[in-house]
Specification:
Layout lengths: L3 E5 L2 H27 L3 H27 L2 E6 L2 E4 L11 E2 L3 E9 L2 E8 L2 H4 L5 H12 L5 E4 L8 H25 L1
Antiparallel strand pairs: 1-2, 2-3, 3-4, 5-6, 6-7
Helix pairs in contact: 1-2
Amino acid sequence: MENEYIVYQSRLRIVGKLLLGVFMILLFLFAFFVGVLEQQWLPLVISIIGFIFFGYFEIYIIKQLFVGRKLVVLTVEGFYDFSSVISPKNQLIPWSQVAKIEKIDFAEQEFVSVYLKNSEEILSELPTMSKKLIATNVKMGFGEISINLNSAKKCTVNKLIAKMNRYKALSTLHKDIDRSDN
């Protein structure tokens, strides 16, 4: 087994998001001109807010298109999740702290849900807003970490769960071997 398994974001899906963003910018640009021509403040304000939001979104998406993006990195020690805004990002989640890994369906999307043994300690470094969103997930019955693979390249939820369980088992095996050597 390889030392690391990395799930990357699909460039095709990034292009899809890029096109959606361009459409939204054009829509808000149209609303802006309607507001100017008819001298109405509400369409002007809404279009400016929407234009700024989706403009920022487009810059972020273009950056992802050229730089590439890792969604999940599995190692023998644990895993890194970069798949969403509330992900722990560069924080290693050790396999020893993973209680359960399962597939969940929510809002017609599939996620890998990871339940942690000691979530407060592991997630203590996250921003307050991320902690609140994670608490909401937990109240809904999901794990503290929800990995979204909607934009993943060549990886499904079931495949990632199988890989995660293999790496977790390998981690336990390595610990047992280390103990027997001492």
